Task: structure prediction
Amino acid sequence: MSKRELRKILIANRGEIACRIIWTCKELGIRTVAVHSTADKDALHVRYADEAVCIGAPPSAQSYLNIPAIISAAEITNVDAIHPGYGFLAESETFAKVCEDCNIKFIGPKASVIAMMGDKVEARRTMKAAGVPILPGSPEPIESAEEAAKLAGEIGFPVIIKAAAGGGGRGMRIVRSEEDLAVNLETAQTEALAAFKNGAVYIERYIERPRHIEIQVLADEFGNCIHLGERECTIQRRHQKLLEEAPSPVITVEQRERMGEVAVKACKEIGYSSAGTFEFLLDEDGSFYFMEMNTRIQVEHPVTEMVTLADIVRNQIRIAEGEELGYTQDDVQIVGHAIECRINAEDPVKFTPSPGKITTFNIPGGPGVRVDTAVYPGYVVPPFYDSMIAKLIVHARTREAAIARMRRALEMMVVEGIKTTIPLHIKIMNDENFQKGNFSTKFMEEFQ
Result:
């Protein structure tokens, strides 16, 4: 397989992840092109990049999801590759295929692999064939209430209905009895169609108090693959992650090896290359089950970088250049503990968006503190995009020390002009169950 030098990369994204990609590109001597909507003309990723191209109006559909505009920007600026970041077009097989057709390297897996993992029913089928544990459920999308009732009766209630084409809680319904099945099936199908333009849903057994554990993988184009351990992503609100940590406070060395081996084997089976993440549900008895695979870099990748010293973006770029990984599983060592808090422009009690002008923005420093952000004093948080304005990450020798460091960092982080979730994160750090590592995905329901 021939090597290809990437001299200029377009970043088809915005915010902190666009800045994060630019940081690594600068270290590698690679020139960067930022694309932006009219609302983001003063954004940091636009300032940091070597070149910038306006691709449309503020709504995502007219800018960051506008494939023709992004490809035009790439061709005008003569880039070698496009990095999609996360969100927007990062898991669009159409976008990846267009890049391939235009002879622009898509920094990620092949379009066919994105399509395979993007269809949750197909992903379940593929993972089962690869020997990955999956929850009992429907092998095909559910077509009728009668079919759903028959399957649910076989699986046993409660069951969960999920959208086949997406996630994030949309098109998802928990059903505890047959009487509630038909109406929830119809609601889930309607939500899935509205959110993903695909109303297909499937059913699987529902675990009452799981933990959400994910495994970070890296795979090159030569069939080499390793994992970088697990991340604990259990603290969520409405299926949206609030904070993450690595390693998990409950995963044993044996469990990590088993989950990692399963993920690596599956990567090789499907011909995966680039960075990716396998998401699992961990039952109270220690059993784990495949939930989905994210074929992109994750929001929470910094906690893995902190405990392994890996630069995941650098690895993505090297793999895209046709390089081998250069190290094996035995080279991966997990040192200390890292926690990431997502700082959102939201009311910390009502969870309503809080866009507006940031009048004061002071980020904490000191040992083991990292802040990934794209905002600054005077920056106006637009109402058109995700509300996350920063990621506060800490690293320490132990989990206890990491919690103390995060508490200190949160208390020293000053954001004025808008409301943020900083007070909520401080409250979580002070929670006894969180400190003991005693929590499930129901933590936020019980916490408040």
Notes: Residues 27 and 314 are 9 Å apart (CA to CA). The chain has three domains: 8-107, 136-205, 211-447.
